[in-house]
Amino acid sequence: MVKAIEALPDLSQSDLTLYRIGSMKLFLFDYDWLEGFAPGSGERGYTGLLRMAARGAVGWGSFALPRGEQPLDLVKWAAVYTPLKGLSIPEAFHVIQGNRLCWGTVRGDLVAAALNDLADNIEYPPAHDPFQLEEDECLRRSVSYFSF
Fold first, then answer.
1. Contacts of 22 (CB under 8 A, 6+ apart)
2. Exposed end of the chain (fewer CB within 10 Å): N or C?
3. Across-strand partners of 88?
């Protein structure tokens, strides 16, 4: 499950301005496959992962949504994130803070968690990917995928 970010991290003494978001990928699953990676995410609805990358560093966020009457249009749902591409990490945090209310809790928390994870992984590079997920496996198991 995504962790909520209440405030911006202190970016004033950071080199994060040198990192620009190069790609984002959103994977949607229709079952609780993510339970082992994001406990509490599989509650009979949609679960998913957002992957953000900047200069080789990667950040992940996970989300869960109840299943509605209509199938989720992943491209429409994720379209709010497209302006983040090409922004520096501090610029992206600023945009997120300004749009969280209109994006809604799930989308706001998801992108904040992925961006926060990306910033952490830039500052303190992990020895391995904490999700230990292969993109091919995500693609194979997803019911929908959006790369932007």
1. 53, 54, 55, 85, 86
2. C
3. 20
| Whole-number pLDDT of residue 42 | 47
Domain map (residue ranges) of the chain = 16-137
Residue with tokens 């970010």: 5
Assign 85 a pLDDT band (cuts: 50, 70, 90).
very high
pLDDT at 137: 83
Architecture of domain 16-137: 2-Layer Sandwich (3.30)
Task: Burial-class residue 2 by CB neighbours within 10 Å (0-12, 13-18, 19+).
Answer: buried
User: Residues 2-42: pLDDT tens digits?
Assistant: 444 545 555 555 689 999 999 999 999 876 666 555 545 44
Q: Which two tokens mark 99?
A: 């749009």
Contact 118, 24 (CB under 8 A): no
Residue 1, number of CB atoms within 10 A of its CB: 18
**Contact, 148 vs 21, CB < 8 A?**
no
**pLDDT tens for each residue of 47-82:** 889 999 999 899 999 988 877 766 778 999 999 999
Q: What is the dihedral of CA 114, 93, 101, 52, to 10 degrees?
A: -30
